[in-house]
Design a protein that fits this description.
Layout (H helix, E strand, L loop, with lengths): L1 H20 L6 H10 L1 H18 L3 E5 L11 H13 L4 E7 L2 E14 L2 E9 L9 H5 L7 E6 L4 E7 L1
Antiparallel strand pairs: 1-2, 2-3, 3-4, 4-6, 5-6
Keywords: Signal
Protein name: Lipoprotein
Amino acid sequence: MNLNRQCYFLISFLTLMVLAACAKRPELEDLERGFYQQQAIFEALSETACTLKKALNLKWMLYKIDSTQQVDETLLSQFNRMDQLLSQIGSDHIVIQQMGEAECSLYIEQWSTAFGGNGANLGYSYQPATLAEYRPELYNGPNAEPYIHFTKPLLSGWYIEFSKH
């Protein structure tokens, strides 16, 4: 009985890993279109998140929607605003950090996959620490390079950022 339970757990775990690894990567055009259709929301989000970063004197924070149980009452309205803005763009979390020369960098993940130490992620990045040339053939075509990183400029300090490692 115990062996059956272990086999069931292992099969379930492997199935979930395969499904997670096979999630379809969004097209860059879809991310661009989403940004431009909701540009005002992204601009409000960068203003709100960076104001909170400064008020809390943060170097790094992973903020998840509705996680304001232990915040200063004076900042609660800012956190509620950030919840609302993230919901409007279909995200439930944001990374707020200080990277490179920028006082405030943001990252909103739209897709990621990882297995066996290798992974890739794609998302919206505000004032990223490192800008890297966008080369469509690296993203769209088959390639053997073990590491790919690019930032594709949008507007107002926002980029689409992709990393494969």
